[in-house]
Write a structure and sequence with these properties.
This is mannonate dehydratase. By secondary structure, the chain is of the alpha/beta class. Helix content is about 35%, strand content about 15%. It has two domains: about 15-125, Enolase-like, domain 1 (2-Layer Sandwich); about 130-385, TIM Barrel (Alpha-Beta Barrel), CATH 3.20.20.120. It contains 14 helices and 16 strands. Bound molecules: D-gluconic acid and magnesium ion.
Length: about 425
């Protein structure tokens, strides 16, 4: 066989340009069907388009502007197939790396491009990611209530619905309001007012309230269901160590966000005192936020998610790194992450080796109508469905009927007025 001459090689290589799918448009859609969502829609000359979630709770318009003012024009003319190249262009090319606004914007582009690639291939995205590594995705639901009895009654209801994993959050005696405790059984929405509401917090009262909640829950629910709890960054490491130790007899699946994690070494102290599994990372936006936590095996579950941590591409990298260190995933899935993120998360969860659990809070009927989707829930498990791409869409005409409404997350003060963690 004669070797091809260099110029023939070059021609063959350039011929692949014919398979390019050019991006012809990118637009941001902001809608508020009960709460604000930011969606990026990328269009191509093939007629196929893709969608990506860009919602950053309470800071929605910052990401919308980042995309509209700094990203969308750069996408026009690029080959939509080159997901990694576009990711690197937006990450390295920005000079200003990381941060929730930048990474949510990159996530939206990345997610929309995976959607496009799936639609062009005629395959659901999980097939492009290596195929299903399990039959379905175990999700946890939120049982909460004003007191222990109400929380346990709600947990029983979730068990009847088939949930295999349930998060327990209860009102704290002596405190007027508690994070994670909603007015509605299914729809928890922390962004509750135009400007931040100021709540009062007492760690002492809280710490007294959690072990009795778990004791009552185990009595009522038995041992065949996973129980989870979120401390929402309210504890010091030593307080978290104590709570973890006190919960050990009830075998919690995890204690979430025990302490703030800017200082990753915080978790060493917690680990020295308890074998309760630890989860953290819903506010992380990059693999670098979790490097030490993972390398030193200071956590058991990483909660970073598609929309806030650079999309499917970056989250896969993070999950693969975590897998080397026995850390599993437990992606954030509160209602402020749109159904577009939920769909992407389910494709990701289904395909990775070290999946742990997926948070699932049902969206309102208004939100579901704006974002028609193929994912489904049955017996405590979810599946993204087999539609090509992500299997989720945005009804733009309906979205336009719900204009943006400013809304903020509350803030917290200690009983003496000291500003505290939300
Ligand atoms: C969770 C989270 C939420 C967040 C909310 C903030 O575990 O689901 O802690 O309750 O507070 O998503 O945007
Ligand atoms: Mg949380």
């Amino acid at each position: 066989m004669p070797q091809p001459k260099p110029d023939e090689n070059a021609r063959a290589w350039h011929a692949s340009a014919a398979s390019k799918v050019r991006i012809t448009g990118a637009k941001v859609i902001v809608t508020c069907p009960g709460r604000n969502f930011v969606t990026l829609k990328i269009e191509t000359d093939s007629g196929v388009y893709g969608v990506g979630d860009a919602t950053l709770n309470g800071r929605e318009l910052a990401v919308a502007s980042y995309l509209t003012d700094h990203v969308n024009d750069c996408l026009i003319g690029r080959d939509a197939h080159r997901i990694e190249d576009i990711w690197q262009f937006l990450y390295r090319g920005a000079y200003w790396r990381r941060g929730p606004v930048t990474m949510a914007a990159i996530a939206a582009v990345d997610t929309a491009l995976w959607d496009i690639k799936g639609k062009l291939a005629g395959l659901p995205v999980y097939q492009l990611l290596g195929g299903a590594a399990r039959d379905g995705v175990m999700v946890y639901g939120h049982a909460n209530g004003a007191d222990v009895d109400e929380t346990v009654a709600n947990a029983l209801h979730y068990k009847e619905l088939g949930y295999k994993a349930i998060r327990l959050q209860s009102g704290v005696p002596g405190l007027a309001s508690t994070y994670g405790v909603s007015r509605d059984r299914y729809f928890y929405e922390p962004a509750d007012a135009r400007l931040p509401t100021e709540n009062i917090w007492s760690t002492e009262k809280y710490l007294r309230s959690v072990p009795p909640l778990f004791e009552a829950a185990r009595k009522a629910l038995g041992w065949d269901v996973h129980l989870l709890h979120d401390a929402h960054h309210r504890l010091t490491p030593i307080e978290a160590g104590r709570l973890g130790k006190e919960l050990e007899p009830y075998r919690p699946f995890w204690l979430e966000d025990a302490t703030p994690a800017e200082n990753q070494a915080n978790f060493r102290l917690i680990r020295q005192h308890t074998t309760t599994p630890l989860a953290v990372g819903e506010i992380f936006n990059s693999i670098w936020d979790a490097k030490q936590l993972i390398e030193e095996q200071l956590i058991d579950y990483i909660r970073a998610t598609i929309v806030h941590a650079g999309g499917i591409s970056h989250l896969r990298k993070l999950a693969n790194f975590a897998d080397l260190h026995n850390v599993r995933t437990g992606c954030h899935g509160a209602t402020d992450l749109s159904p577009v993120c939920m769909a992407a998360a389910l494709h990701f969860d289904l395909s990775i080796a070290n999946f742990g659990v997926q948070e699932y809070m049902r969206h309102t009927a208004e939100t579901d109508a704006v974002f028609p989707h193929h994912y489904r829930f049955a017996d405590g498990m979810m599946h993204p469905g087999d539609a090509p791409g992500l299997g989720v869409d945005i009804d733009e005409a309906l979205a336009a009927q719900y204009p943006y409404e400013p809304a903020s997350l509350p803030v917290n003060r200690l009983e003496d007025g000291t500003m505290f963690n939300w």
